[in-house]
Amino acid sequence: MNVIEVQNLRKEFKSFSSRSGLSGAFRDLFTRNYKVHAAVDTISLNIKQGEMVGYIGENGAGKSTTIKMLTGILTPTSGSIIVNGMNPHKQREEFVRTIGVVFGQRSQLWWDIAVQESFRLLKKVYRVSDEDYNSHMGHVIETLEIGPLLDKPVRKLSLGQRMRCELAAALIHNPPLLFLDEPTIGLDVLVKLKIRKFLKEINEQYKTTILLTTHDLTDIEALCERVVLLDEGKIIYDGKLNQLHTQAVKGRKQVEFEFLAEISKDNLPIAENVQWEQKDATTWLGSINGDEQLVSRLISEVVQKNPIKNVRINEVSTEEIVRKIYEEGMAFS
Amino acid sequence: MSMYIEMIRIRFLMMLAYRTNYYSGILIYSINIGAYYFLWSAIYGGKEEIQGLSVLQMTTYVAVAWMARAFYFNNIDREIAAEIQEGKVAIEMIRPYNYLGMKTMAALGEGIFRFLFFSIPGMIIVALIFPISFSASL
Questions:
Q1: Per-residue confidence (pLDDT) for residue A333, from 0 to 100
Q2: pTM of this structure
Q3: What gap in Å lies between CA B71 and CA B68, rounded to an integer?
């Protein structure tokens, strides 16, 4: 069953470019130059129940715009969206009862008052019974370790504390679908781990579908099996994360040799699909264009000739893959 | 319905969140009333009354008008403007309620709070400092 069904979704923004200077500003009062810019450009996407999907892309790729359309905040220019069997912006009030949203950049708690008061209002808003609230939220509060924070006003909380409270607030009505827009922005490692563990737990326990955008790819690695990669409003990759790895890693491996003594290039085996690069006096980096067998052959050749201190096979990290894709585009799809 | 009542309660909490704000509010209203009192005293000069209205009646009018203003005046309109300008309205769109309905209840909450905890205590303080008389007859 698909929780999210998106077809040929498109969102255009009309923005005007202001003329320079004060006289330009006055001229802008009468005529303006408009530019139409497609933030999300004809994307189609299906997400099944219980999936955890990472939605990644550069700044301005259209991630947040998509999330805003999926949550019914923005209306699409064209295309169809069905989330939880409803049209988000047409049936807004009914629809938003079935989702939870966290915007990392905005707070949904009331700034001046204690966290528990915000929770109490949200509980009334979502019409959660005392019983459900106590059993479900008791668990949430315990795992996120926010019990001692509940009586503090939101403005006195640190970013990490606030974000955990935000997450709890989004889960008050135990929604089957959760949208997280950069939930780990600016958080330290410990809080990040705590949040990841928690998300995994609710995904397993309640089969909550989670759509997550982030710039921290370790989040994606830890949580999501499936990634959707967005570039300039278009989906350029939609599939398994490890597949992205194998595709990108294919034909590009690095082995770092640390020798005991200084070594010149003549002592290293020469092959057409191996490139050598000297890092410092005793360290050489070999980039290999080939499979694992070639790598092991190269290592054995090098080790036979030269006394070695350390050998390391560098695995290409997701971060590097994604950086490459951002820079060079999707060359291998 | 209960969420609207809850919103009134939240508004009370927000008004009470900063106690300096609360106390200075009462002080500022008293200063305003004082300024008008002295202005009208100067206008009257030594005169008993202008157009059948005595200084005492004028002072009472000014005090009541200012304290009534405490009740009907609120910042909800500016709040809505700020929310739209800063994009916070997005958060309101993901909640299952009517935005304007909720703001109306917030305004009502603020009004009730101001009436009970601004206007009435303020009136008592003002009545102690300035000569004011409440009479049913005109």
A1: 43
A2: 0.80
A3: 5
